[in-house]
Amino acid sequence: MSPLFRENIAYFIMKYIGKNTSLAGQLLKGCHVPDSMRLKYGKWLSPDNIPERFKGRGYKQVPLAPYKPEVYRQLRELLEPDISCLFAEDSVIQKLPETLIVSCEYDVLRDDALLYKKRLGDNGVKVSWFHVENGFHGVLNLFDAGLFTLPAAVELMDRIVDFVKNI
């Protein structure tokens, strides 16, 4: 298992939607997001929504590059709610059931989880949240790995089981 970096995610999502991976750099810069969406969803995507305790250890805000319509035309499906749930309409989010959000300290998707948690909570969705301080993307794969079992994975599985039992 290797660490997951922003570049890996961009590459994998491009492969998933069947696009040329050469567009991954534009994706990472945010060139595919129209100004209208930046305005509409900016309050949810703001780094101001990331609690200060998560802004240490090398945190850096990545400013969006200017919108490029030609990149949007090629990557517009990345802004659909089934790929980017942060872009769902409020009316859809408000219908979601009680939700468990897990974030891991050493996960490139950690901040996305924190932003989504806030968006759900602000829309009246009951959210349970568990942050795995020593966790990384995929830690749950080491829940029952014999000698390689990690305590963080066991604790995460226990939290998930407790959440499901209490629904």
From TrEMBL:
Protein origin, superkingdom: Eukaryota
Gene Ontology CC terms, in alphabetical order: cytosol
Residue span(s) of domain Alpha/beta hydrolase fold-3: 77-140
Single biological process term from Gene Ontology: triglyceride catabolic process
One GO molecular-function entry: sterol ester esterase activity
InterPro entries documented for this protein: AB_hydrolase_3 (IPR013094), AB_hydrolase_fold (IPR029058)
Protein's UniProt name: Arylacetamide deacetylase-like 4
Naturally occurring in which organism (per UniProt): Podarcis lilfordi
One Pfam match: Abhydrolase_3
